[in-house]
Design a protein that fits this description.
With about 325 residues, this protein is mostly helical. The relative contact order is 0.05.
Length: about 325
């Protein structure tokens, strides 16, 4: 079958030079490219505040993207000069501070000085000049409070160890996480704790869904996680997903993420989320759409006699529907 291809469909036309396109591609920064398209369309000078408001993003997001575009020479200020990147949070991994500036801050006895001591203790090493610069960028440019940064570092250490090997996270990894926290506007311990609680709940839900889908001895892929995130966002618990999985296996003979998603989307559009609601609807269902009970006869005609595993899954589905 021929590969499916796509083309632009909009009638509007804007001109980009090949050199500009090459710069944006080489930068590999989707945020900067998105902001550049916005500024290309408006043809106006935009401050980080204005761009963030127009695009529904945080000021830090817009400021960081502007810093990247400025360093690439693609934007300039309204006085005709290049945008001063020193006034904006740096792009990830961009050098910004001198060793003298960082040493002066460390020697000042400020919150950053205490943060350096705690971070080095937690990471179990003396930080290099590059690592100190990244940490200071998180503190100074992103404006995350020292106590929030320590909670961030502790979280990154826990995540890194959870992946196995007992390795500590790099400062580049911590820096990327810090940009996420800044975009989420996590500027207090209370917000940080709420955010981490949501992450833990998501992780727990992912584990339960993985078990319900009989996935063992491997991690979920990024696409699989997106499916599950979508199901959780629609309001489905693990019991409903397990019912959808059993129906999928009965009708297709395998785990099909798209098929399960279709079932759950149909239920969601019909306002069905709990096992009880699904039971009532399935009892009345007729026809052959995913999510409807097609019957064992159709299953046998399409796939032959069910094997022992399929029979067990079918029985589990019937028990769940009967029990509500």
């Amino acid at each position: 079958m021929a590969e499916k291809k796509f083309a632009l469909s909009g009638p509007e036309a804007f001109t980009l030079s090949g050199q500009t396109i090459d710069r944006l591609i080489r930068a590999g920064d989707g945020d900067a490219a998105l902001l550049y398209l916005y500024m290309l369309k408006t043809h106006e000078h935009s401050s980080p505040d204005e761009a963030a408001a127009a695009m529904g993003k945080s000021v830090g997001w817009a400021a960081s993207a502007m810093a990247v575009l400025s360093q690439m020479g693609l934007i300039k200020s309204n006085d005709g000069g290049a945008t001063d990147a020193r006034q904006l949070p740096p792009a990830e991994g961009t050098a910004r501070y001198t060793a003298e500036e960082i040493k002066r801050e460390v020697d000042s006895g400020s919150d950053f000085s205490a943060l350096v001591d705690e971070a080095q203790r937690s990471l179990g090493k003396i930080m290099s000049p590059d690592e100190l610069e990244r940490l200071f960028g998180i503190y100074d440019a992103l404006r995350l409070p020292a106590e929030v940064i320590m909670l961030l570092i502790t979280h990154c250490i826990s995540e890194s160890r959870g992946r196995g090997g007992g390795r500590m996270p790099s400062m580049r990894y911590i820096e990327r996480a810090a940009y996420t926290w800044e975009r989420e506007e996590i500027f207090s311990l209370e917000k940080a704790e709420e955010y981490l609680k949501r992450l833990e709940e998501r992780k727990s839900a992912m584990g339960e869904m993985k078990t319900a889908l009989l996935i063992k001895d491997r991690e979920l892929s990024a696409s699989e996680k997106r499916y599950i995130d979508g199901w959780i966002a629609m309001g489905f618990g693990v019991d409903a997903v397990e019912i959808a999985f059993d129906i999928t296996v009965i009708n297709t003979g395998k785990l099909s993420w798209g098929y399960i998603n279709t079932i759950l989307s149909n239920w969601h559009n019909s306002g069905l989320h709990s096992p009880g609601e699904i039971k009532q609807s399935e009892g009345k269902a007729k026809g052959g759409k995913p999510g409807e009970n097609k019957g064992a006869k159709d299953q046998k005609q399409k796939f032959g006699a069910p094997d022992k595993l399929e029979i067990e899954r079918m029985q589990r589905l019937l028990d769940k529907i009967k029990d509500g």
